[in-house]
Amino acid sequence: MPEEFDFAELRKYLRGQIDMGDSEVFLDEPWTLVKRAAPAPSRPAINTAPSVPARNVAPSVPASAQFSPVTNNPAANVSFAATSAPSAINTSATSAPSASASLAGESPAASLFAPTGGLAAPAARPAVKKTASAFESAESLDAFYAAIKSDVVYANVGDLALYEGPANPKILLLLPAPPAQGGPFFATPAGEMLVRLFGSLSIPAESIGVTFFYKGRTARNIPALLEATLKKMLAKELSFIAPSVMVTFGEPLFHQVFGKGKNFEEHAGTDMEFSGVKTCSLVDAYAMSQDKQLKWVTWKVHIPKSSYFKA
């Protein structure tokens, strides 16, 4: 009885995966499908037999599985991604007259409210001195963490999730909040996935650290006023951790760090900077660990935009 289904192509694909020599093959992670370069072949022996014309043999691995995150065209793989992106973002605004210039110009309304020589200027209000938070004067990372525990942001919060990783990491992962299940981040599915991702970019696990924008282990809604304080805390924390590159994850966190005026889809993957640290923003890591499409858009679209990962 003839076979009802033809599995020849499937056999070729799986044989190609086995030939890569990896102990594990994560079929849903595109960064694990890059085939390693084969060793240089030894010098062939001289063949005295009559030559036989070579036959064309189809490659064992589909062309869709052989790609480079740098050389592939992102737009050819993901339809909703931007087709081009600059390697650096210029956030300077277009030239426009300043408010003071418009008041001093030809506007008739401006001249109506211009002060005259006969009227005395109103007395200036006394400046209100703002008390600096204790964490702003911290001189070490441990002193910084001790100070933020007593800050109003973390009042009655309890245990905080602090920095995990080496001193001066090559990559600092910035997550919105600690994992809901608790425990070390790198033991979670999202943490393990990111270690594999950056490992494919020749960044070893021992060079990666992680911290959190909001460090409380209990989820809560953060008012905008407290977001400004958390942003100051992040800048101070970065001065002690001193990473080479920081990577933020998720659109809400992107706006908390860079403000509401920037578009996440336009800036995801591009070279940015926060508090003097090279920064790149990617999609939410927790969602990415469960969504193959997000993994592909990260690997094929966002990461190739950044020059920080092309060394």
Explained architecture:
The chain has 311 residues and is an alpha/beta fold. 30% of the residues lie in helices and 8% in strands. It contains eleven helices and five strands. Strands 2-1-3-5-4 form a five-stranded mixed sheet. Strand 4 and strand 5 form a beta hairpin. The longest helix has 18 residues, at 224-241. The radius of gyration is 28 Å and the shape is globular. It starts with 7 loop residues before the first helix and ends in a 6-residue tail after the last helix.
- Major beta sheet summary: 5 strands, mixed
Q: What's the total count of β strands?
A: 5
- Overall geometric form: globular
Mean pLDDT: 73
Radius of gyration: 28 Å
Tags for this entry?
311 residues; alpha/beta; five-stranded mixed β-sheet; 11 helices
Strand-helix topology:
Blueprint: H1 8-19, H2 74-77, H3 99-103, H4 108-112, H5 141-149, E1 171-175, H6 189-199, E2 208-212, H7 224-241, E3 245-249, H8 251-258, H9 264-267, E4 272-274, E5 277-282, H10 285-288, H11 292-305
Short note summarizing the structure:
With 311 residues, the protein is α/β, with parallel strands linked by helices. It contains 11 helices and 5 strands; from the N terminus they run αααααβαβαβααββαα. Mean pLDDT is 73; it is low at 19-23 and 34-116.
